[in-house]
Design brief:
Belongs to the glycosyltransferase 7 family. Pathway: Protein modification; protein glycosylation. One of its GO terms (cellular component) is Golgi membrane. Pfam families: Glyco_transf_7C, Glyco_transf_7N. There is one protein chain. By secondary structure, the chain is an alpha/beta fold. The protein has a domain of 228 residues: Spore Coat Polysaccharide Biosynthesis Protein SpsA, Chain A (Alpha-Beta Complex). It has eight helices and twelve strands. The strands form two sheets. Strands 1, 2, 3, 4, 6, 8, 9, 11 and 12 form a nine-stranded mixed beta sheet that branches. Strands 5-10-7 form a three-stranded mixed beta sheet. α4 links the parallel β2 and β3. The longest helix is centred in the first third of the chain and has 28 residues. The protein is globular and about 60 Å long. The protein starts with a helix and ends in a 12-residue tail after the last strand. The C terminus is likely disordered.
Length: 359
């Protein structure tokens, strides 16, 4: 009996090893080396380190000026290298977060000459493998938006991505509804491009390490795991606020985000429950890579949430299939292609069936 059990366990381990090797080979073939390593993050536990010894912090604009158009037809461009070679080491590690006083949008535009109208960018000298939409829920924090654009554009260019930034601007002075704005941004972005990855990004968080790649692997990803305000430690295991990434197929599988949380703190627990109910694993970067600076006076109050209460999972299970992407109601008031982003002005007080409207 016992030898038979040992034999079965050995066969299971062999099959698991073969599956991991096949997955790694497939992802390597598609130039998703980072995605493969990211997909295995759930197998390891992050250590609460708070610094990268011996690695100096780099200006986020360092070497960016060396990226330029080449005299080659677009269709003849080579594929972007997985790791940028010298003399253009774009992914050097920790970044300086510079909060310039009296920063203007004109100055940010001048610093980013390769960004096209609507906040679109693709490497001018190579074909990229990665296509990422950045969705930013917005509630009138103009100074935060300028600092985010100043920092995020070169951060993304260093990663050789094709990307666009969509700012979803809520009007009518109703309570802030981050989940519904995320749904709007995702829907409008997918009408424009066949994005393979969507990053949902709070306006008051600036990434501090360019090894935190804004690409999607085979799992959903929560990447803002180490915020300076919380001493670069995870606030709580269930925390999913800040910066969160989904493939479109994963977004549809969990029915997007809830539309019914108006200025409340349970949205992130709701998303965690949706992932759990759908049997979806979550990827997180190492705490050294997923570091962020939080701008002061942001609207992100999700750190105040309490752990899931008894029955919370059952509550979400009873309604997640009716509250989300398939019940989204809004009016697109305008779509403006700004030099550094696409501005979507929306009225989200349009009710979905059975959804509460803020007073």
């Amino acid at each position: 009996f016992f030898p038979r059990m040992e034999q079965q366990r050995g066969l299971l381990l062999l099959l698991l090893g073969l599956q991991l090797l096949m997955m790694g080979a497939l992802l390597c073939q598609n130039h998703h080396l980072h995605g493969f390593t990211s997909s295995l993050r759930f197998l390891t536990q992050d250590k609460p380190e708070v610094s990268s010894p011996g690695i100096p912090r780099q200006d986020v604009y360092s070497n960016i000026s060396q990226i330029h158009h080449v005299d080659i037809r677009r269709e003849d461009l080579p594929n972007c290298p997985i790791v940028s070679p010298p003399p253009l080491p774009l992914l050097g590690g920790p970044l300086k977060v510079m909060i310039q006083e009296n920063l203007t949008m004109e100055q940010v535009v001048e610093k980013n000459p390769l960004v096209e109208l609507g906040g679109q960018y693709q490497p001018p000298n190579c074909w990229t493998w990665h296509h990422t939409a950045i969705v930013v829920p917005y509630y009138g924090q103009a100074q935060h938006l300028q600092h985010l654009l100043f920092h995020l554009h070169p951060f993304l260019q260093r990663q050789q991505l094709h990307y666009a930034i969509y700012v979803v601007n809520q009007v009518n002075n109703t309570a802030f509804n981050r989940g519904k704005l995320r749904n709007v941004g995702s829907w409008e972005a997918m009408q424009e491009e066949d994005w393979d990855c969507v990053f949902f990004h709070d306006v008051n968080l600036l990434p501090e390490d360019n090894r935190n790649l804004y690409i999607c692997d085979i799992f959903s990803a929560h990447v803002s795991v180490a915020i300076d305000k919380f001493n670069y430690k995870m606030w709580m295991p269930s925390y999913l606020g800040g910066v969160f990434a989904l493939r479109p197929v994963h977004y549809l599988k969990i029915n997007g985000f809830p539309n019914t949380y108006w200025d409340r703190d349970r949205e992130d627990n709701d998303i965690a429950a949706r992932l759990e109910l759908n049997g979806m694993l979550l990827s997180r970067p190492h705490l050294l890579f997923g570091r962020y600076h939080m701008l002061e006076d942001g609207l992100d109050h999700s750190h105040e949430q309490s752990p899931k209460s008894p029955g919370f999972l059952a509550e979400i299970q009873s309604r997640w299939q009716q509250d989300g992407a398939n019940s989204l109601g809004y009016t697109l008031l305008s779509k403006e292609l700004q030099p550094l982003y696409t501005n979507l002005t929306v009225d989200i007080t349009v009710p979905a069936p059975g959804a509460p409207v803020p007073s």
